[in-house]
Amino acid sequence: MSNRDQLPDNPPPLRVVLVDDEAAASRWLAELLSRHDHVEVVGRARRADQAEKVIAHVKPDAVFVDVEMPGRDGLSVLDRLDPAILGVVVTAFEDYAVEAFETAACDYLLKPVSAARLERTLARLASMSQRGSPAEPLPPQPIDASAAEERVVLPIAGETAVVPAGDILWIESQENYTQVHAVGREAVVVRRPLVHWESELPAESFLRVSRSLLVGLERITMVRWQWQGGTQIEFAESDEPLTLGRAATRRLKERLDATGDC
Question: Of 3, 42, 71, 83, which cross-links 140 as Cys (Cβ 3.0–4.6 Å)?
Fold first, then answer.
């Protein structure tokens, strides 16, 4: 371990907030942090909206946040952090690394967190805290909804592919996973819930037509309204049609009627 990864003899005090909907994981991280005298856990939350209230109240030095939680995901918390507050992602999944560092996360911890790995994170936080001026951390980025619309990160065959969000045709839920259908690619199975995609992708371009299906509207070229046998959707640059049931057909028709696109 390099000197940069070692905690200094007298690290600066570090007040942290833990954000995780898994109580056991939160307790374990709190236990590891309690072994360091300079660290104090000053707040906990189980949801993104709760976290933002806690952070605003206690004004911590750092936030350790899980990604997959009920409601908004943990990355949205980091994306809105005051630039003076350091953010660390703590998750069981490797899939979110690119997105995490796009939100200027300082580190990315995989569960279950080990004491040794956490010490490296604390050393990194201490190093950033000792830089002096609060202006030295990365400058804050404006919250721009279009940033999430431009591209989507997909793990494909051990690699990470970045595809335009507009290339997504539909996303189908499969228990704890989702299957993503995009132009020019084989369907990709991702360990990410449908609600995550729904919150990430632009609402004006995607419609959740059922509990298990999110459809991209911009690439629809033909809708065959077959109320008895199911409605069939055809997409631009794709030979693979999508068939909808009655309830999903009704939601799609209501949306297209409202926008005048049908």
Answer: 83
Residues 177 and 96 in one domain: no
- 46-100: per-residue pLDDT in tens? 999 999 999 999 999 999 999 888 888 888 888 888 888 999 999 888 777 777 7
DSSP state of 127: H
Assigned domain for 253 exists: yes
Name residue 243's amino acid: T
Q: Which has the higher per-residue pLDDT, 144 or 86?
A: 86
In a domain, residue 8? The reply is yes
Range of the domain at 240: 151-259
* Ramachandran region, residue 96 (left: φ > 0; alpha: ψ -120 to 50; beta: rest): alpha
Secondary structure percentages of the chain, helix, strand, coil, to 5: 30, 30, 40
Q: Say if residue 17 is in the same domain as residue 110.
A: yes
pTM: 0.50
Task: Answer with the one of 70, 97, 129 that is the final residue of a domain.
Answer: 129
What are the φ and ψ backbone dihedral angles of 54, each rounded to 5 degrees?
Answer: -65, -45
The answer to whether the beta carbons of residues 244 and 209 sit under 8 Å apart is yes
Is the same domain home to 89 and 20?
Answer: yes
Residue 145 forms part of a structural domain = no
Query: Cβ distance 47 to 69 under 8 Å?
Result: yes
- Which alpha helices (DSSP H) does the chain contain, by range? 23-34, 48-58, 74-79, 97-102, 115-129, 145-150, 194-200, 246-259
Distance CA 245, CA 215 (A): 13
